[in-house]
Amino acid sequence: MEVLLADEYGFCFGVERAVEMVEEAVAEGARPIRSLGPLIHNAQEMERLGEKGVSTIDSPGEADGDTIAVIRAHGVTPQVQRDLEQRAAQVIDATCPFVTRVQHLAERAAEQGRDVVVAGNPDHPEMIGVVGYAPNNTYVVRDASEVASLPTLRSPLVVSQTTIKLKTFLEVAEAVRQKADAKPQVVNTICSATRDRQDAARALAGEVDAFYVIGGRHSSNSVKLLAVCQEQCEKSFLIETPSEIDPGDLQGVGRVGVTAGASTPDWLIKQVVQRLNEIGAAHAQPVH
Ligand code: F3S
User: Fold this and answer.
1) Per-residue model confidence (pLDDT) at position 286
2) Is 126 a catalytic residue?
3) 65, 78, 192, 197 — which has fewest CB within 10 A?
4) How far is the CA of 262 from the centre of ligand 1 (A)?
5) Which residue's alpha carbon is at the smallest distance from atom 6 of ligand 1?
């Protein structure tokens, strides 16, 4: 049995960077390290980091004078950042640079007295952080239909949550055009990581007999990856750990594909590939 990895899989740039920043602090002996919200949406990686003394807090109020506080890749509002800086011994800002860009674009537009429309989910932590940079001027809309209820928009800036669909963003931008008092400035701030993983999985799914997506069952990008694989490969499975692989599913399978969501660490992917290779070798044994 041949095990094939998709061309793009696993940690996106921002998540990898955040984990590396925390690992560096751990290596320097910094303690206790507390991330505001889970650093990463992967239970196994959180457990691994937990063993190294990294824990999670739910609000800046939980940071004390000893705490090394971590701002995760989603970012936070300037107010939350200030709170952490006042309370904690040190703040590690692991906001993904692609998110920082959206925050700064919104802040600058607001300083110029312009409105900001962000296509995204208003309840998502990334969006809550962005709104904090331009609280009086920003509207977060889930789709174009929500633009209709907005007031006339002043020289608006249109940006997007980093993980939304391009189609939604373009539709929102068009709806804003019709609500604006001047031509809007449209800046596509969608990050390609999710899309790249889906495209790579799609390209491989047609060439394999079975497909394993490694990721959390509650991770939306992993669930979406599974749906992409299932379109072309009936035997597609979402697993969190190698122990979930059922060798029975691989009977008669010649080629098996593997991909992983943006929060799945490399060590877990390696374990799955190793397990698949073991099962493949066992299946290759001659039957007496
Ligand atoms: Fe950053 Fe894109 Fe990942 S915005 S956190 S690299 S999905």
Assistant:
1) 52
2) yes
3) 65
4) 8
5) 14
